[in-house]
Design goal:
single chain, alpha+beta, 15% strand, Aldehyde Oxidoreductase, domain 4, 31% helix, 5 helices, three-stranded mixed beta sheet
């Protein structure tokens, strides 16, 4: 978007400069208007420039077409194709995060309750902080489902045994806590505006931190769970298999 806007600004500046009999370097874009730097009262709105281009091609400078549009593709630096071992630099940035969770396991039911969940993340410049928070919370909900509830089960002949929500356990608002969130902002040196990325990033870390916390709780009993989901039924069987 930044690149396309820059191309349009340059294109529109040439049109306005031609109409005002000056050079493009004397035109600036400010508050939705392309105006003379020497006299800010003289200028044209973006809509006026686009309208002129579409309706009055006879007024356009040489080399400028009637299309008030621009396309731009950004490619990051230092990307390369895979080598003979399949190694390459395909990702430009990496967002970091630390998750800490406190859980409690009910011996009688095998249910894992999340008492407190804390996240500190670094996705570079936060272009929309509210959306970042929403992405983290949504990813956390998906991670809770993957770690504690959701499971595809099949019969011996490959038929699905989970076909309704009576069979397929999913978390609700009661099982997904609102995380306490903190942030560290380290702008990326290689991307426009320093952004990295945070699309539901918590989904990757949540299952790991939950399983680690569950096994930490089970450690005094010399028990551990090694598969997901750590569903109430699976943990109950683990707890009661040895009458612990």
């Amino acid at each position: 978007m930044l690149g396309a806007c820059q191309l349009l600004t340059e294109k529109f500046s040439r049109v306005v400069a031609h109409l005002m009999q000056t050079t493009p370097d004397q035109i600036e874009l400010m508050d939705g208007r392309l105006r003379l730097k020497a006299n800010s009262a003289v200028g044209m709105t973006l809509a006026e420039v686009a309208g002129t281009m579409l309706a009055r091609s006879d007024l356009l400078p040489p080399g400028i077409d009637m299309n008030p549009e621009a396309a731009f593709v950004w490619s990051g630096p230092n990307r390369n194709i895979p080598d003979d071992q399949g190694r390459c630099r395909s990702y430009l940035t990496a967002a970091e995060a630390t998750h800490v969770v406190m859980v409690e396991i009910d011996r009688e039911t095998g249910r894992t309750a999340i008492l407190k969940y804390c996240v500190v993340d670094d996705c570079g410049t936060r272009l929309n902080p509210a959306m970042v928070a929403g992405q983290l919370q949504g990813g956390l909900a998906q991670g809770v489902g993957a770690a504690l509830f959701e499971e595809y089960r099949y019969s011996d002949d490959g038929q699905p045994l989970v076909t309704t929500f009576m069979d397929y356990l999913i978390p609700t608002i009661h099982e997904v806590p609102i995380a306490e969130k903190g942030e560290v902002v380290t702008p990326s040196p290689v991307t426009p505006l320093g952004a990295k990325g945070c699309g539901e990033g918590a989904i990757h870390t949540t299952p790991a931190v939950l399983l680690n916390a569950i096994n930490d709780a089970l450690a005094p009993l010399n028990l551990a769970i090694h598969e997901t989901p750590a569903s109430p039924h699976r943990i109950w069987k683990l707890l009661h298999a040895r009458n612990t």
